[in-house]
């Protein structure tokens, strides 16, 4: 489907979609629904919403008004757990944040199926969390997150996750940095995932 557009048109469409999502997210931050989120959820709400919206466009060419059940399922089950490098505690924030945002979007006439999508998202939460647990089991990331917990970091916070990656980066030797499986690659992958 994207073959029908040139690179400039695709970039313009993407910028338009992201502008709409950023505006909606900014308006959402002024609502009671946003203020009722836990403080830690508020801290990462913008990143969660923008990433969700960006990937719905990237993978399904859907803007906020056209988000569908099928696309939401795909993003929450197949994309988020494998593209976001974070501890499971971060993933537990996704459903409350997106639920509140979709409720706002429905009542602001931005997403006509917002309330229905909330039900879908809540239904998918156990599957998404299971997918995260399975992908972390025995991985270098799991070991890294255990280190972060021992250091007293809040691994549900993107800021603390960044601190953890920066900490580990300081102690990597040149030999380890060139090895095939090292923690720095996880940090790089995290940055690429956030930019993807």
Task: Describe the protein's architecture and organization.
The chain is mainly alpha-helical and 196 residues long. Helix content is 75%, strand content 0%. The radius of gyration is 18 Å and the shape is globular.
Helices and strands, in N-to-C order? HHHHHHHHHHH
Question: What would you call the structural class?
Answer: mainly alpha
Number of strands: 0
Span between termini? 19 Å
Instruction: Flag low-confidence runs.
Output: 178-190
| Beta content | under 5%
Number of helices: 11
pLDDT averaged residue by residue: 87
Identify the overall geometry: globular
Rg computed from alpha carbons, rounded to a whole number of angstroms: 18 Å
Q: Which sheet architecture does the biggest sheet show?
A: none
Q: What's the helical proportion of residues?
A: over 70%
List the main descriptive attributes of the protein structure presented here.
single chain; 196 residues; mainly alpha; 11 helices; 0% strand
Topology summary:
Blueprint: H1 7-28, H2 32-35, H3 39-60, H4 69-83, H5 88-91, H6 94-107, H7 114-136, H8 140-150, H9 158-171, H10 174-178, H11 183-195
């Amino acid at each position: 489907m994207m073959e029908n557009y040139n690179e400039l048109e695709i970039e313009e469409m993407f910028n338009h979609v992201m502008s709409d999502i950023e505006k909606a997210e900014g308006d959402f931050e002024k609502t009671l629904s946003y203020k009722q989120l836990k403080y830690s959820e508020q801290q990462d709400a913008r990143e969660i919403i923008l990433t969700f919206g960006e990937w719905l466009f990237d993978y399904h060419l859907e803007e906020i008004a056209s988000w569908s059940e099928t696309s939401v399922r795909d993003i929450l089950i197949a994309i988020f757990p494998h593209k976001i490098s974070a501890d499971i505690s971060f993933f537990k924030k996704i459903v409350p944040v997106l639920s509140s945002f979709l409720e706002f979007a429905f009542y602001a006439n931005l997403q006509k199926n917002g309330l229905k999508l909330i039900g879908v998202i809540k239904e998918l939460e156990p599957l998404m969390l299971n997918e995260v647990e399975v992908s972390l089991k025995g991985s270098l990331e799991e070991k890294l997150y255990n280190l972060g917990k021992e250091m007293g970091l809040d691994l549900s916070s993107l800021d603390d996750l960044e601190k953890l990656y920066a900490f580990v980066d300081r102690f990597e030797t040149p030999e380890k940095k060139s090895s095939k499986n090292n923690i720095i690659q996880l940090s790089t992958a995290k940055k690429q995932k956030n930019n993807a």
